[in-house]
Fold this sequence. Notes:
InterPro entries: CobQ/CobB/MinD/ParA_Nub-bd_dom, DNA_Partitioning_ATPase, P-loop_NTPase. This is Chromosome partitioning protein ParA. It comes from Oceaniferula spumae. By secondary structure, this protein is α/β, with parallel strands linked by helices. The chain has a single domain (about 1-259), classed as Rossmann fold (3-Layer(aba) Sandwich). The chain is about 40% helix and about 15% strand. The chain has 9 helices and 7 strands; from the N terminus they run βαβααββαβαβαβααα. The protein has helices at about 15-30, 45-50, 60-65, 100-115, 130-140, 155-165, 190-200, 215-225, 235-259, and strands spanning about 1-5, 35-40, 75, 80-85, 120-125, 140-150, 175-180. The chain has a 7-stranded mixed beta sheet, sandwiched between helices. The mean pLDDT is about 90. It binds adenosine-5'-triphosphate and magnesium ion (MG). Magnesium ion binds next to helix 1.
Amino acid sequence: MITIAVSSQKGGVGKTTVSINLAHAFARSGKRTLLVDADPQGSVGLSLTRQSRTLNGFYDAIADPNFPLEQLIVPTRLDTLALVPAGQCSDYELGGGAMGVSLHRVRTFFRMAAAQGHEVCIIDTAAGLFGVTADVLSACDAVLVPQQAEPLGVRSVPKMLEALTRMRVVNPRLNVLGVVMTMVQNRLAESLEAVQALRNLLPQNMVMRTVVPRDDLFVRASAKGLPVGVMEEGAGVLAVFDNLRLETENKLNVDTARS
Ligand SMILES: Nc1ncnc2c1ncn2[C@@H]1O[C@H](COP(=O)(O)OP(=O)(O)OP(=O)(O)O)[C@@H](O)[C@H]1O
Ligand SMILES: [Mg+2]
């Protein structure tokens, strides 16, 4: 099983939107995909299953390693897509989780998910690269970094990639897939300039070629609890996330071939 975290130091940059729609794209390609909400605020769960606040989930598995994974998995209408909501256990939300044990438990969680036949696991993380997110990054194969296409946001991205690269001390396997630009406004010069500025700032292989356009459909889709691609008007967006999925697969394959 390949585990891909979607992370950023920043909030509101599109992590949850990218996680849901990329997971949906992997599932549509036939891969058995598990979408995990590792954000204690639980937005994936809220979006996909309205009752998710009352469901057990990822943080319950982190708090209690004997929690059976089967009880955490929520099926979706797509056979190949399942979801693990954030869950009930708020100790970690409050920073009160037992120190040092959660990395081990994140690893155990991934092992159990792989044993159940999932081929791809996408993990939506909370903003910031600390706490349980750091443990997820220490345990997973790859990380994708969404970044909103706006001029002021771009300058801090190289530092963030450096911080992620330093995670390789703990996790030498971590493949930093790169930055995916989100909420790109094709009719706004400043937005396109922000995309270009980031391409100038970073090595070519650190910025995904696929960009996610700004589209009100994303807001409407999350209000309805759906990946945008399943909405009637969402066909155009399917192609965006198919491309992002292909690019991600290519990067992972190149990496596997090298090692
Ligand atoms: N491409 C897009 N076009 C339009 N709106 C978008 C797009 N991507 C995300 N949004 C909207 O922007 C807001 C933030 O997106 P999202 O929740 O995915 O970010 P996040 O990084 O997960 O935030 P947080 O740090 O709070 O978890 C949401 O209201 C979402 O619907
Ligand atoms: Mg989020």
